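Target chain:
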Amino acid sequence: MTEMFDMVVVGGGPSGATAANDLALQGFKVMLLDRMGRIKPCGGAVPPRLLKDFDVPLDLLCTTANSARMISPKDNKVDMPVGEGGWVGMVDRDVFDEWLRARAAKNGADRRDGTFEALERDADGTAIVCYRPKGAPRGSDPVKVKTRILIGCDGCNSAVARAALPDEKLPFVAAYHEVVESPPEGFKGFEGNRCDVFYQGKHSPDFYAWVFPHGSKTSIGTGSAVQGFELRKAVAKLRDELGMAEDTCKTVRVEGAPIPLRPRKKWDNGKDVVVAGDAAGTVAPASGEGIFYAMTAGREAARAAAEALKTGDASKLALARKRFLKGHGTVFTVLGIMQWWWYRSDTMREKFVKLCMDKDIQELTWEAYMNKELVKRKPLAHVRIFLKDSVQLVTGILSGGGIREGNTAGKRAQV
């Protein structure tokens, strides 16, 4: 007889591991299927709220950052201190994701290593998940299990979404980073408690490049949707400029993956499948922040799936997207507009970094990041920011900065 589960979660990143853990704690029979050895390129920044919301211990952080440095195309630098007592947590996805998976297994999820291959149906329409276990002999038959609800948390190119949801091509940025051994503190200006963000077309013509500290290691990466832009060469160039090439900072590992730029229009099939995390497109535009939003989407998917199973009402699955966007949709819209406008050329990026000098913008930016919502207080600060933004927008249009440098939006970069 084919084994039956209440839920099968495909993908063991932050989203899938969170969904599996939440469901296991509620007593559901859950299988967590993950393709081991796959780590997403990620700067690794998490807000303090994540530790509180998802019961993540402080010692899982490899370090904390208390400031960000924005670097313009003309190499102008603007430091943005988090503020008194504030910090941004930094995690290594290699360690962080595994801890989340192990926690889910400890709390009752049936953890299995393998690759999702297909979604089938039995005679009464029950979902059958076909997967190939890690190390299975070539040509062997896939393992099949039944599930009442399937949750896909298997990345931007989600096989679960392709199998069960309407076809939708999400716009995405191709991301690539190299995790290297950190240089000594102060080496050529390196600071182990500062995140550096490079808004320079030579390193990314339509997104940004980064240097994020992870304690003994550092993530150096970039992202772009521009066809023909070579990410590896861009990262190599950045490392050379910073004095962090291979002969100085040994490479520990490299990773590449697509990062979606907006949420999917539909997360569920109205019957027994729902997606979350990158599979649902829950990466914040402009910033590329994904860990907190992935875990939040995973929790909402698990919550909706539990309600659907308990009530027998499959329409409950749609609540995952509805609830997520109610909490974060406005932030995503604002960040999407920001990315569309400010990242379009070096002229505009220069103006964007200049805006970051403003203390009102710095304070409201960090408050929004920490609280994961737009700051509604301090109305005069918002008015001042609006007026300053308006001046920059007008001067940008008059100077021709509103024209994208090259008709390349939405095309794929080369790793």
